[in-house]
Amino acid sequence: MAEHEHTHDHDHDHDDGHEHDELTEAEAQEQAERLLRKEIALSQIRQYGDPVLRMRADEVEAFDDELRKVSERMIGLMHDADGIGLAATQVGILRRMFVCTLDGEDHVLVNPVVTPVGDETEVDVEGCLSLGSVRVPVERVTRVTLAAQDVAGEPVALELEGLPARIVQHEVDHLEGRLMLDRSDAESRREALGRLRPRLVLTS
Ligand SMILES: [Zn+2]
User: Fold this and answer.
1) Strand 97-102 relative to strand 105-116: parallel, antiparallel, unpaired?
2) Residue 6 above 70 pLDDT?
């Protein structure tokens, strides 16, 4: 789902004589390469208006080499695009699987089922790699359990809270053809559609 802000680990010591916004040549090149990788990754991720984003994905039955390759490609795309979650439908594959980063660890989750724990909810702003720069507030259950399979077909059971719980709810929605816009309030949705539509007109 969400793109996360890049927080750099550089120490901003004042005594090194460098201006803060002055990049070394190596840093500037690294940044340019990262932006290029991001652009390439986003060009391979289906964008709003693509009908596949509205389709329901089917159960995965074969835990084969192809599934492994797809999941590796998706993890690569997710990182290149600065994302923390990516569902198979977003790359045009109607299979019930997604990849995500939960607390700094990458996961491939196949045939996922999310179950709320309790009824506490929280509203937070989400982004989506299929919705450009749009950000909308979405109410989600705070705590969930996730039952799924890993890429080898082994069962996975996770108890999640906060951001990780939000990520898996967002991704499972994708597998149902549901977007974060559908869960936002009417005004935020109108505003978001206003930002998305002009681009559709230009590209159609
Ligand atoms: Zn998304």
Assistant:
1) antiparallel
2) no
